[in-house]
Amino acid sequence: MIRVERELPVEAAEGFDRFCDVEQLPRWVPEVSRVEVLGRHPDGRVSNVRFTAHRVNDVEHSYALTYAYDPRGRRVMWTPAVGETAGLKGFAQFEVVDEGICRVLYVLDLSGLDEATKAASSELAEGTVEAFASYLGAT
Prior knowledge:
This protein is α+β, with helices and mostly antiparallel strands. The protein has 3 helices and 7 strands. A 7-stranded antiparallel beta sheet has the order 1-7-6-5-4-3-2. A hairpin with a 5-residue loop joins strand 2 (32-40) and strand 3. The protein is globular. It starts with a strand and ends with a helix.
């Protein structure tokens, strides 16, 4: 497991809502170039999505994830979609710290991955949290 925590300059509910706006990921996740929504939950949130990553050595990489949400606990969970071999399982949770400040806990489950992928995933987790903080205007 990789755990990354960071305080953010927003209310926990706003942090959760903005993180759950999966269609906006290309605006703040440097590796993601395109999002294709494949399904939605009854409340309108994305349930299944295909991400396309920027080209590396002229090759585009894509993977599909399935999302689940716990709005009361301000937690979003994701897992590779059925039949997918790429993508990571994890969650993000937003906790109240003080008025206008929350803490995000971002966790990736690395069970079953090789050491090289685990090392890359650690950098990815830290980079994702920092990119989200920048998107929210944190310094």
